[in-house]
């Protein structure tokens, strides 16, 4: 059964891998061999970690209705608002949760993914599953309930990421190279674990989903420019399918950044002009 193993030391270097997995891991090891850039994780990442330890309100707890689902599960694509919605903590560890985990692994493998979060299948709860190898019966299936990050490494690496909620879109994202986390397994048992290299990246990508953060939110503007047209195509696809306006627009985000940059430039000119005027007046 897909959910029969939950979390044990992960055999990353298994004997059998697909050519695609070999290629990804070779590329990843080349990237992480570069000298580390000693800098702290971004402020937004550290802020997320702090906020996670503060959510104990009753309305943050998932009800049985929040964990209900219909088979087969379907991947939710950008810009569906489900991907930005709040995801509740799980406090009920029962057969329904185990069945949900099994179904999540099934859809992950069928769509050639290596990780999947609950909001990506329309269920807004704190749950993720992944298998860095991406092949049923190989590697180790990881299930994390209510995960929290305790520590990020200072070393950061750039790697090309894709996402099941962004079909066919791949771009570079920089993330910490290793992390220490705590979470519960599918039985409700809490544990602490450390991930590094590819598993750490998969965890962080799925963990972002649980915070309503999407992978393009982490991209530099130069990288984002390379996929902007593809994101706009997904927005149009959503509008055509639902008959509703897209809940978010990548072009709007760019417009806000340009407006902010223009405002900063304007204020700089104003200060410079003011300084020149003062000198002239003095003379």
From TrEMBL:
Gene Ontology MF terms in the entry: metal ion binding; peptide deformylase activity
Key word Transferase present: no
Main localization of the protein described in the UniProt heading: plastid
Enzyme Commission number: 3.5.1.88
Keyword Transmembrane: no
Disordered: annotated segments: 238-283
Location(s) in or outside the cell: Plastid, Chloroplast
Cofactor annotation: Fe(2+)
Pfam family, one: Pep_deformylase
Top-tier EC class: hydrolase
Keywords from the UniProt entry: Chloroplast, Hydrolase, Iron, Metal-binding, Plastid, Protein biosynthesis, Transit peptide
Catalytic activity field: N-terminal N-formyl-L-methionyl-[peptide] + H2O = N-terminal L-methionyl-[peptide] + formate
SUPFAM superfamilies assigned to the protein according to its UniProt record, in alphabetical order: Peptide deformylase (SSF56420)
Compositionally biased residues, Basic and acidic residues: 238-259, 270-283
CDD domains: Pep_deformylase
GO cellular component: chloroplast
Endpoints of the signal sequence: none
GO BP, sorted A to Z: translation
NCBIfam families: pept_deformyl, PRK00150.1-3
Family, as annotated: Belongs to the polypeptide deformylase family.
Function: Removes the formyl group from the N-terminal Met of newly synthesized proteins.
Name of this protein: Peptide deformylase
